[in-house]
């Protein structure tokens, strides 16, 4: 792979759940060192897109490449190897409640590699140090605040030194200080590890501080993209409505449904 090959590249991806089309002509790319945000209304298909990228779902058409190789043509073994290179932090990044902080981070290392206890200890402490929680190694998850728990989940997500990080709503439920700490960590870790990150988030101010590029989704399509500056100054009606949290605009309040009167059994009114 040449250094200029994107880590993740999607071209013209279409995806349906059964008969229902959800994603339509999605094209995007993430390179090393880049943080890309995926924003858009609820149900626009952001989480589904992360599942396609991580190989948990397969598209009906179009191409998804990881380091230049088509994901759908991977063997089972290649797909497992790819997943090992993807760190994931999801909404409530659940820790194993009956394992200490240390053992939570050691878990993926023990699962994937035969390492000496001394090496595991060094690696776990390095990851905890990176998120500022080396001093919490011996605590149990119930002894952590919500913000600390999210940082431990982040340390676990980077345990295997991933090439790509996928974050799905990593700020949800955090107080403003913890939220800012997690945002800074996402940026610092991305720079330090040279990863490429995709961040699904509704938090516009915090994410615009750390991302390089934003893709806006609406009803399964990318309807706007740009750098944070371009997004903030965009006159595109979708982007404008979303960024300025306006209730009226092209992002509809109502999900498409049969006529209201027909649904209530009243028949069509003249
Ligand atoms: N397994 C499934 N089978 C059928 N439909 C699904 C399935 N999973 C999700 N959907 C539908 O796909 C649409 C997109 O869901 P998705 O979770 O990707 O949206 P999202 O943009 O991440 O939303 P949110 O911001 O609310 O998390 C929704 O209408 C959802 O109901």
From TrEMBL:
The keyword Magnesium does not apply. Residues 8-244 form the ABC transporter domain. GO terms for molecular function: ATP binding. Keywords: ATP-binding, Cell membrane, Membrane, Nucleotide-binding, Transport. CDD domains: ABC_Org_Solvent_Resistant (cd03261). PANTHER family: INTERMEMBRANE PHOSPHOLIPID TRANSPORT SYSTEM ATP-BINDING PROTEIN MLAF, PROTEIN TRIGALACTOSYLDIACYLGLYCEROL 3, CHLOROPLASTIC. This is ABC transporter ATP-binding protein. It comes from Leeia speluncae.
């Amino acid at each position: 792979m040449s250094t200029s090959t994107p880590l993740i590249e999607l071209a013209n991806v279409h995806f349906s759940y059964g008969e229902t089309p959800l994603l339509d002509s999605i094209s995007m790319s993430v390179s090393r060192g880049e943080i890309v945000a995926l924003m858009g209304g609820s149900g626009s298909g952001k989480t589904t897109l992360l599942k396609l990228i991580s190989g948990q779902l397969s598209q009906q058409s179009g191409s998804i490449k990881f380091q230049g190789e088509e994901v759908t043509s991977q063997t089972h073994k290649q797909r497992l190897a790819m997943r090992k290179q993807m760190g994931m932090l999801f909404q409530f990044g659940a820790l194993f409640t009956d394992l200490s902080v240390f053992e939570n981070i050691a878990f993926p290392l023990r699962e994937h590699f035969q390492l000496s206890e001394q090496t595991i200890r060094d690696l776990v402490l390095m990851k905890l140090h990176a998120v500022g929680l080396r001093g919490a190694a011996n605590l149990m998850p119930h002894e952590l605040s919500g913000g600390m728990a999210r940082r431990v989940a982040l340390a676990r997500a980077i345990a295997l030194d991933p090439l790509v990080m996928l974050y799905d709503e990593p700020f949800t439920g955090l107080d403003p200080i913890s939220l800012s700490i997690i945002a800074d960590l996402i940026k610092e870790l991305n720079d330090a590890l040279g990863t490429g990150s995709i961040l699904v988030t509704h938090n516009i101010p915090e994410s615009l501080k750390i991302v390089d590029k934003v893709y806006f989704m609406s009803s399964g399509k990318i309807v706007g993209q740009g750098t944070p500056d371009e997004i903030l100054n965009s006159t595109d009606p979708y982007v404008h409505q979303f960024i300025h949290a306006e209730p009226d605009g092209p992002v509809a309040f109502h999900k498409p449904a049969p006529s209201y009167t027909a649904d209530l059994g009243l028949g069509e009114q003249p």
